[in-house]
Structure formats: structure tokens, C-alpha cells
């Protein structure tokens, strides 16, 4: 009887650990910005699984560093602001980046500056019809 309970507990623990590693534990996050195409956000999980999201550059309004208060401290995170299709001046969605790795502010500033350079090049480039 006791060995059955112990075996069941070990099995449930192992299944829980596998689910955690496959769906929750993000090992690495990356951001690829191509001015003429868009922004690709990739998350690599501890199990080796990868999740990729692509945002077309035409939908991107801006990239900003946002701040939030979490457990008595201020945390900073990078966000992509998506343009509202009905209102060109409005924002339809805020897409947070690097939610698992939580890089320091100085690292976020470097990524922010690079993103802003690419966005500025896109705005100043002549639009082809």
C-alpha cells in the first residue's frame, strides 16, 4: 500500500516536472528586428522547444521601455506598441518582451537604442508604392 502511494507521488512529480520544463521554464529569449520586414521574438524552453512570434513592421508603432512595480521594487521591461488599425494615432496592443529573463535596465537601454535606430531608418526611408 505504501509503495503504491510513493510510486504514484514520484510519477506525478516527474510528470509535473516534465510539463514545467516543456511549457513554463524559458531558457533563452531573443529579438530579431529587420526594418523592412518586422520583429521576430523567439523563446527557447528548457526542454528544447521553441516558440516564435512574428510582428509585421507595418503594425509596429513604437518600441518603449516600460516600468512596473512588483513586490516593492520597480522593474523595467521592453514593449512593442502595435498600431490600432482604426486609429493611426492609437495603440491597439502592448507586447511585452523578455518576460522571463528580466534583463537589467542598462541592457534594455542598449536593445532599445538599436530598435529605435532601425525604426528611424524605416521612417526616413522613401516609401515605395
Automatic annotation (TrEMBL):
<protein>
    <submittedName>
        <fullName>PIGH acetylglucosaminyltransferase</fullName>
    </submittedName>
</protein>
<dbReference type="Pfam" id="PF10181">
    <property type="entry name" value="PIG-H"/>
</dbReference>
<dbReference type="InterPro" id="IPR019328">
    <property type="entry name" value="PIGH-H_dom"/>
</dbReference>
<dbReference type="InterPro" id="IPR044215">
    <property type="entry name" value="PIG-H"/>
</dbReference>
<keyword id="KW-0472">Membrane</keyword>
<dbReference type="GO" id="GO:0000506">
    <property type="term" value="C:glycosylphosphatidylinositol-N-acetylglucosaminyltransferase (GPI-GnT) complex"/>
</dbReference>
<dbReference type="GO" id="GO:0016740">
    <property type="term" value="F:transferase activity"/>
</dbReference>
<feature type="transmembrane region" description="Helical">
    <location>
        <begin position="6"/>
        <end position="24"/>
    </location>
</feature>
<keyword id="KW-1133">Transmembrane helix</keyword>
<dbReference type="GO" id="GO:0006506">
    <property type="term" value="P:GPI anchor biosynthetic process"/>
</dbReference>
<keyword id="KW-0808">Transferase</keyword>
<comment type="pathway">
    <text>Glycolipid biosynthesis; glycosylphosphatidylinositol-anchor biosynthesis.</text>
</comment>
<comment type="similarity">
    <text>Belongs to the PIGH family.</text>
</comment>
<feature type="domain" description="Phosphatidylinositol N-acetylglucosaminyltransferase subunit H conserved">
    <location>
        <begin position="30"/>
        <end position="99"/>
    </location>
</feature>
<keyword id="KW-0812">Transmembrane</keyword>
